[in-house]
Amino acid sequence: MSAAGIEPPREMPQFWSFFQQRHMSLDVIGPPQSWAAPVARVLAPDGFAEDVWLDAIPDHVIAVHLSGARVSKVRGIGAGKGSLRGGSFALQPRGTDNHYIASGPCSFAQILINDTLLDRASNLVGQPGLSGRLRPDLIFDRSLRLNGLAETYVQRALTTRLPPTTLEMEARALLLLDEIFALHGEARPNKALRGGLPPRQLQRVTDFMREHAAQDLLLDDLAALVGLSPTHFARAFRQSTGVPPHRWLTNLRIERARELLEAGDLPLAEIALACGFADQSHFTVTFKKATALTPGAYRREART
What we know:
By secondary structure, the protein is of the alpha+beta class. The protein contains eleven helices and eight strands. It folds into three domains: 14-183, Sandwich (Jelly Rolls), CATH 2.60.120.10; 199-242; 247-302, Arc Repressor Mutant, subunit A.
């Protein structure tokens, strides 16, 4: 289950299949990791024009320009308003047109925001479902906070050297939804209780995280332990601990790795898996970022 209590997409979304049929290069990240809001990086080696137009796109997406030629809207809402370039974004609700053109090679990313995710998150904050009411005019504006949140979401999704955990991407998806609510005049999700989680609830959650540190934990599961919505829980946890849940879990994994490195001669690949890292490379990068030493160097130094 995802942060919003939903199943992630199991098949290629229609819009992304459409791009593939137009001979664009597509790299999809998220479904294997059960992300509620997966990402596709699209490369258009020759740009695009009318041959990729649709009068009504089949999915809600947030598009973020990555590199190359500007992407301009030439028909419909927002035509002539600006262009998609240098990290700027467009919120494209299902049913709106995609009458965009790019005169040369370019790449962009799209974050899939499906109906179930929107409506489930809306219900959690006592609002009617947003899936049929998304604004079609939120394009090109670099000043909106959603622009920066979407760009950061894509950057983390595309990171290979230090890949994000499912827990981190769930938290980032909640930030996107929070801002989408605000831009539609909806109440933001309830703020965390003053003082964060009560000590007993915090202990219950952290004990669970310690016991299952090697697993790919989900925000929805952690929130369910204390009967809170994922958004409320994430804020309360950070208020209590000073860090978001995914950072707390990473710190816990680093501490466990330190103990194993100091205690014996387990191969680094085995330590990586035992502590919940994707592989030895992921372990090495994360450990060095936290300690300024590679695991091998830490082990040697600990024994001198």
